[in-house]
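During the no-cost extension, the postdoctoral fellow (Dr. R.K.) reprocessed legacy sequence entries with the updated structure-token encoder. One reprocessed record is reproduced below for audit purposes.
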Amino acid sequence: MKAKFVGTILRRARGGGRISLLALGLCFWFGNSARAAEPPLVRIAHGAFNEKVEALWTGVEQGFFRKHGVSVEVINIRSGPQTMAALASGDIHMAYTIPGSVLSAAAGGMDIAFFTGVVNRGDGDFVVAPAIRRGEDLKGKRVGVQSIGGGVWSMTMLALEYLGLEPTRDKILMMVVGDQAVLTQAMTTGNIDAAYVGYTFSTLLKEKGFRVLLDLGKAPIPYQGLSLATQRSYLKQNPQIVDSVVRAVVESIAFIQNPSHKEATIKSLMKNLRLKNVQEAESGYQALQWLYSLDIKPNLKGIQNMHRLLAMTNPKMKGVRSEDVIDEGPVQRVEKTAFYQDLVARAKR
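Re-encoded structure tokens follow.
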């Protein structure tokens, strides 16, 4: 409607200078008005390459972010330190990340906080070569990770600890290999002997004869998984934008856990994880049914457990409190809304 009206003004403006100036002024006003109507852009970075990112992918693909008033761009940045550097520089606005990255950034002086807990429990499998049957068989072996201090490393360290192993003492070589797709490939080629991977990639390895030594989703290990974090200055200056992101993520979770939307979620997993068929995506889809929850408060006990691990290798961690990297304000505001309460009520039916 606006474009048609502007075109009419320009056609009628050919006859005189005054009218032309008026026409140009009106065009300028309409152009600015259209731009003003665009929702604010929010860049969210993640370093994961597994089914747990689906809440963000669904939010974009199903239009939930735009519905709640923000335009979200989901960006993959492979390592936690790079993600934190991008957050500090303003290249991204939020990070979908894990406690290791946030605590390390806080120890380095960044005023950062988790404002949601999207994955509030451990998950995924610690997969080993077929010849490995017990934890002690891993002594002297090669274990692949994505980066030191990242999410895969965190889960790997917790798995080794649960199995009674310690990398230095037991001469376990921790090898930085790549994301979970690369780790899966490294397992199949024999370049590493063990790796933590999500359920989607674990299924692919099990089909090739590899063994699951530990399912971290079943082990009683407190853990805070992938969650949204940003600088506190951003939280203070943009409460409406932050709340909009929280609303959209919650609606994405409700969508994913609704059986009637299974086909759409499977297609999204296949596209974003570059899977070949429905069967490969099925295990990831099933995992999301219990991994995700509409209770999205950050998990303090999980963050404290990760904090304990990191403090073993980083003395600066002693100057940070786990409580200092949590801001429950956005979740508390959203939980009071009729929108959120309606989602929870419908999920219980």
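The two ends are 43 Å apart (CA to CA). The chain has three domains: 2-37, 41-120+224-347, 125-215. The remaining legacy entries will be reprocessed before the final report is submitted.
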